[in-house]
Amino acid sequence: RSLKLPKPQLGEPRELRALRMQPAQEDVLMMSQTLDKLLARDTVQVELIPEKKGLFLKHVEYQVTSQRYKISVYRRYSDFDVFHEVLLQRFAYRVVPALPPKRMLKGVLTSISEREFIEGRRRALGRFINLVARHPFFSEDELVKTFLTFSGSDVQTKLRDAYKKMGDEFMTNRIATQAKEYLPADIQTQFSTSRELIRNIHNSFLKLRDRAEKMAERSKENATDLLMFGKELSTLGSDASPLPSLASSQSTWGTLRQSLKSLSVEFAVLSDKAAQQGRREEDDVVEKLNLFLDLLQSYRDLCERHEKGVLHEHQRALHKYSVMKRQMMSATVQPKEQASVEQLESRIVQQENAIQTMELRNYFSLFCLHQETQLIFTYLPITSHILGAFVNSQVQGHREMGEVWTELQPKLGCLFGGNNGLKPSI
């Protein structure tokens, strides 16, 4: 008996089309970045060019040096301002860090000097340009390259022209119109959860920064106190007026006085070490905290832009569309002039197109938001860099101070009769 083999079902060619390879969705949406990769993209120095005329200059100039492009260019605050403006227009759906204020706020005048304000602004501009130069999408953009490398006379015109040529990211990103296909179904829930988590992280980092600032401030105050302590000992030792005969300890006080005078040198060294410690805490710890805080703040701004901008405009457009539809309905019920009905029809078509574009933009905005959220999480391990810098600054500071104190101890021999200050307490 012959064996019957199963007959294969080939199905329709139409069904085969559905089996075509789907685009690898994760690849486009997920950013395969590590913090080390981001930090290695570029390091940009922003230095103040020494003021040329008088104490208060109308324009402060900065020398901006990119490691990646191996070039230095000169920029004013207004150049940063225009760069920030076009960057925000081009990348409306991404984290664009804010710029520091151009001038001192009226109320602040009393608490900080002009010099401190200018230094604070220089640091903030440095953080801004480094976050931008290391961003996975900005770093490869023409605008960033122009800002970091163009040394012609008018960088502002050059930046504006470059933006006009390119338009915003929605116009140039090849997957902008298909963003919806790549988004997970629960994107809104994911976004809300991440946003809440990032808000809590932001609040914690603000508190950490405030404490680190206080510690740096204390180190500087410690430096002043040590210096004054040494000066006071010196004043005490420099008093050469003769002692009255009734002072029985006259002989020891004479030699003691000489020793006190020389101690001010040691205390000046201690003061110097404490001041260095304060600068280290500021440069290594507070600055790194501020860099991450700037990024977290720009993420918050982006979330607000998404809600107020894209979603708000979308709702307005839908409202306008429904009004037009109602007008159209009443126009067909009560016959109006043909021309006005046709006009209304063409306006409705335009509005439908506008709504379609807005919907696509809305999905693209969500798509970018999803990537920028990943960027925040990619930056989170900077916590270990910050902690490392904090611990190292303390180890170095305490070691250096300890060495000076240790050298100081034997010098107290003459004060305590060779007991090296290890006398039982009084």
Automatic annotation (TrEMBL):
<dbReference type="GO" id="GO:0031901">
    <property type="term" value="C:early endosome membrane"/>
</dbReference>
<dbReference type="InterPro" id="IPR028662">
    <property type="entry name" value="SNX8/Mvp1"/>
</dbReference>
<dbReference type="InterPro" id="IPR035704">
    <property type="entry name" value="SNX8/Mvp1_PX"/>
</dbReference>
<dbReference type="GO" id="GO:0005829">
    <property type="term" value="C:cytosol"/>
</dbReference>
<dbReference type="GO" id="GO:0035091">
    <property type="term" value="F:phosphatidylinositol binding"/>
</dbReference>
<comment type="similarity">
    <text>Belongs to the sorting nexin family.</text>
</comment>
<dbReference type="Pfam" id="PF19566">
    <property type="entry name" value="Snx8_BAR_dom"/>
</dbReference>
<feature type="domain" description="PX">
    <location>
        <begin position="40"/>
        <end position="155"/>
    </location>
</feature>
<dbReference type="InterPro" id="IPR036871">
    <property type="entry name" value="PX_dom_sf"/>
</dbReference>
<dbReference type="InterPro" id="IPR045734">
    <property type="entry name" value="Snx8_BAR_dom"/>
</dbReference>
<keyword id="KW-0813">Transport</keyword>
<dbReference type="GO" id="GO:0034498">
    <property type="term" value="P:early endosome to Golgi transport"/>
</dbReference>
<keyword id="KW-0472">Membrane</keyword>
<protein>
    <submittedName>
        <fullName>Sorting nexin 8a</fullName>
    </submittedName>
</protein>
<keyword id="KW-0653">Protein transport</keyword>
<dbReference type="GO" id="GO:0006886">
    <property type="term" value="P:intracellular protein transport"/>
</dbReference>
<dbReference type="InterPro" id="IPR027267">
    <property type="entry name" value="AH/BAR_dom_sf"/>
</dbReference>
<dbReference type="InterPro" id="IPR001683">
    <property type="entry name" value="PX_dom"/>
</dbReference>
<dbReference type="Pfam" id="PF00787">
    <property type="entry name" value="PX"/>
</dbReference>
